[in-house]
């Protein structure tokens, strides 16, 4: 059997080339770190200090106390005052403020009347997050006397946020980000690695040797599986150290799930490499796959909130299934067996893409 | 099929869309010889070589390469042929030695034989100094020697070389050819494409390719004696005037300026060619010496490639 030594020869060659390729080497470590920092710090749905202006027509003891309590929530940051709804609207339009607080002259009397609202919030609805935060402000008790407030304070439905009680965004982002980073790097590396050999003419040499297509493909993939697992470790460590993202389930299960996911993306990369003629095309195709993976996988927007059609598209993407696995294992302490359906979906994708790639990748130039 | 031939092709054709890159090519390449493939860029040399080693599927026709039929399963053929691509196709980011090591592994050279074989090749192809140098940083001549070393590492019976000397200096070309003769003497069949006349002249046999078609083939000697042209050189102090005078002459098939000389091809059906030209020059009052010379392979090339267009002027 000469196949196995040939396979090892290709793997050794790939590793040797990877070691010399500083840029790729840097990307293996740099890309996940950069992304986790960007996403971890920049994406924050837990909004604080929204620029706010107040138009206080009442100018009473109670209204001033109300504004002071608004400030205490830390949700708003009162940056100015103005003398009417017109002024607030102008500031909203100019983007100077996100929320305008309009306190009517009869504020004190309205407070006592349960049927009338006492304060009007003018909210910049062009940003859905701000609108959501403003809605939370509605829950804030207005009544000042402790006796009255007690009765109002208890909401009728109590929400207990399981798995992320502090509602910290990184806890939600990091498990999903693992999927995005692995998808991007794995698909890109493999597709570019093969297209580069074709561009440089190496492939013309290789296909004239006894090396078979399968040996060539597997030999190219194996080193990248190892790289994917290294990247996973980087993301997990950075998530833990920088954002205190918990890993409640088994790390072994997480790695098992990631191995299948990596295989699926490498197969996708191979498939792309059979279609792309230049490295640039390979990158374009990877980005083409990356966009839906970010938008439709449940990473950015809740999967259940998407239209049915978008959900079907999302189900095709490996990232969707992997994000369900990582969130399940890392946050909900689920076992991989409880989520085995997602693993099957990933495996199915890997086998399908690999088969297609093998069919398309012939040892010929035409 | 005759066993004396390493390659026999019949009606080999390759079309890319509407373009016929190679058209009904018949070839007989004898074993243990250097067979040249002469033609300008785009004449179908590379396409033919690629079809012969199974890289491209012929649109029509078949070939017998060693004892394998093309098109067909060429996998069994791979260990028996060596192929050198036109463009340097080894790994630029690996050292000279690492490239040889890799090639020896994928050709399944037994582990014990690898080391001595690689050392032997480094020595033979004068690459000992470059052993640890990255292939991408080597000179054109060194790259070419490395490519040849890799192509012959597994001791192939048949060597296909696609314009191996197009990127190297004259001295490297001479060394390269002496290496080829050594390989041929050891029994390797070599098929080499080129667009250099001097290289074509050194082959045992050659085929001239023109726009995908075989214009002529044979030994260089056969081709030279079969030219059926008078080759005449005109030396004149006023070459421009001489050229203007000769150009309109009915029978002149080709007129090439070589410094102060003009090289003229006239069909051998023309009686008294020297007198014909002298008369023309005298009538214009141009001072010139006219004499017949031996044909070169370039004259053959010009002659056979103009047949197809009907008019070489």
Short description:
Chain A has helices at residues 3-20, 22-42, 61-72, 85-93, 107-112, 128-137, 146-153, 169-200, 202-206, 213-243, 251-275, 279-295, 308-316, 318-331, 340-360; strands at 50-56, 76-81, 99-103, 120-123.
Structure report:
The complex is a heterodimer of chains A (366) and B (313). With 366 residues, chain A is α/β, with parallel strands linked by helices. Chain A has two domains: 3-43 and 169-360, no CATH class; 50-153, 3-Layer(aba) Sandwich (D-Maltodextrin-Binding Protein, domain 2), CATH 3.40.190. In chain A, 65% of the residues lie in helices and 6% in strands. Chain A is built from 15 helices and four strands. Chain A has helices at 3-20, 22-42, 61-72, 85-93, 107-112, 128-137, 146-153, 169-200, 202-206, 213-243, 251-275, 279-295, 308-316, 318-331, 340-360; strands spanning 50-56, 76-81, 99-103, 120-123. In chain A, strands 2-1-3-4 form a four-stranded mixed beta sheet, with helices on both faces. In chain A, strand 1, helix 3 and strand 2 (76-81) form a beta-alpha-beta unit. Chain A starts with a helix and ends in a 6-residue tail after the last helix. Chain B has 313 residues and is α/β, with parallel strands linked by helices. Chain B folds into two domains: 5-224, Rossmann fold; 228-294, Alpha-Beta Plaits. Chain B contains ten helices and 14 strands. In chain B, the strands form three sheets. Chain B has a six-stranded mixed beta sheet with strand order 6-7-8-3-9-10, sandwiched between helices. In chain B, helix 2 crosses helix 3. The A-B interface holds A 2, 5-6, 8-10, 12-13, 16-17, 20-21, 200-202, 204-212, 363-366 and B 50, 53-57, 75, 78-79, 81, 83, 85, 87-94, 98, 102-103, 105-108, 150.
């Amino acid at each position: 059997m000469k196949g196995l030594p040939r396979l090892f020869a290709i793997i050794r060659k790939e590793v040797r080339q990877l070691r010399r390729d500083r840029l790729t080497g840097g990307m293996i470590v740099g890309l996940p770190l950069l992304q986790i920092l960007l996403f971890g710090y920049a994406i924050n749905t837990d909004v604080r200090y929204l620029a706010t202006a107040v138009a206080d027509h009442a100018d009473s003891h109670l209204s001033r106390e109300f504004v002071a309590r608004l400030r205490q929530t830390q949700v708003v940051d009162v940056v100015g005052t103005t003398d009417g709804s017109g002024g607030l609207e102008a500031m909203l339009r100019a983007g100077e403020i996100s929320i305008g607080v309009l306190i009517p002259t009869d504020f004190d009397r309205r407070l006592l009347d349960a049927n009338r609202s006492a304060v009007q919030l003018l909210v910049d609805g062009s940003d859905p997050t701000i609108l959501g935060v403003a809605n939370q402000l509605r829950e804030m008790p207005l009544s000042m006397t402790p006796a009255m407030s007690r009765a109002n304070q208890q909401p009728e439905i109590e929400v207990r946020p399981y798995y992320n009680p502090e509602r910290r965004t990184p806890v939600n982002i990091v498990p999903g980000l693992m999927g995005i980073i692995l998808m991007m790097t794995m698909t890109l590396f493999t597709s570019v690695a093969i297209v580069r050999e074709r561009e440089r003419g190496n492939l013309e040499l290789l296909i004239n040797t006894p090396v078979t297509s399968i040996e060539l493909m597997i030999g190219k993939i194996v080193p990248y599986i190892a790289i994917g697992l290294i990247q996973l470790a980087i993301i997990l460590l950075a998530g833990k150290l920088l954002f205190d993202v918990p890993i409640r389930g088994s790390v072994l299960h997480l790695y098992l799930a990631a191995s299948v996911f990596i295989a699926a993306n490498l197969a996708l990369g191979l498939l792309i490499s059979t279609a792309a003629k230049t490295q640039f095309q390979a990158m374009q195709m990877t980005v083409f796959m990356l966009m839906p993976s970010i938008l439709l996988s449940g990473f950015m927007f809740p999967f259940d909130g998407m239209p049915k059609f978008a959900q079907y598209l999302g189900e095709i993407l490996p990232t969707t299934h992997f994000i369900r696995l990582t969130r399940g294992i890392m946050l909900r302490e689920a076992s991989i067996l409880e989520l085995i359906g997602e693993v099957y979906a990933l495996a199915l994708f890997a086998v399908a893409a690999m088969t297609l790639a093998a069919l398309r990748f012939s040892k010929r130039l035409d | 099929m005759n066993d004396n031939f390493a390659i026999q092709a019949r009606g080999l054709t390759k079309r890319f869309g509407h373009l016929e890159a190679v058209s009904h090519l018949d070839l007989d390449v004898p074993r243990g010889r250097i067979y040249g493939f002469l033609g300008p860029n785009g004449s179908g040399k590379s396409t033919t070589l690629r079809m012969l080693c199974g890289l491209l599927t012929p649109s029509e026709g078949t070939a017998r390469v060693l004892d394998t039929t093309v098109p067909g399963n060429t996998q069994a053929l791979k260990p028996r042929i060596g192929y050198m691509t036109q463009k340097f196709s080894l790994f630029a980011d690996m050292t000279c030695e690492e490239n040889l090591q890799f090639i020896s592994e994928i050709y399944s050279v037994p582990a014990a034989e690898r080391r001595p074989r690689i050392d032997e090749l480094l020595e033979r192809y004068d690459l000992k100094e470059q052993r640890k140098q990255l292939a991408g940083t080597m000179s054109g001549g060194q790259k070419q020697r490395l490519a040849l070393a890799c192509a012959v590492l597994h001791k192939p019976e048949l060597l296909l070389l696609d314009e191996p000397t197009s990127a190297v200096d004259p001295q490297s070309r001479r060394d390269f050819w002496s290496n080829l003769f050594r390989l041929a003497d050891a029994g390797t069949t070599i098929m080499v494409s080129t667009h250099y006349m001097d290289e074509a002249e050194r082959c045992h046999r050659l085929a001239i390719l023109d726009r995908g078609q075989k214009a002529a083939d044979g030994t260089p000697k056969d081709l030279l004696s079969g030219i059926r042209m008078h080759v005449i050189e005109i030396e004149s102090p006023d070459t421009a005037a001489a050229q203007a005078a000769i150009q309109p002459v009915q029978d002149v098939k080709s007129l090439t300026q070589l410094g102060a000389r003009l090289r003229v091809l006239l069909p051998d059906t023309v009686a008294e060619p020297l007198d014909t030209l002298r008369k023309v020059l005298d009538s214009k009052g141009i001072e010139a010496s006219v004499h017949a010379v031996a044909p070169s392979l370039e004259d053959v090339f010009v002659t056979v490639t103009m047949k197809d267009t009907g008019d070489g002027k």
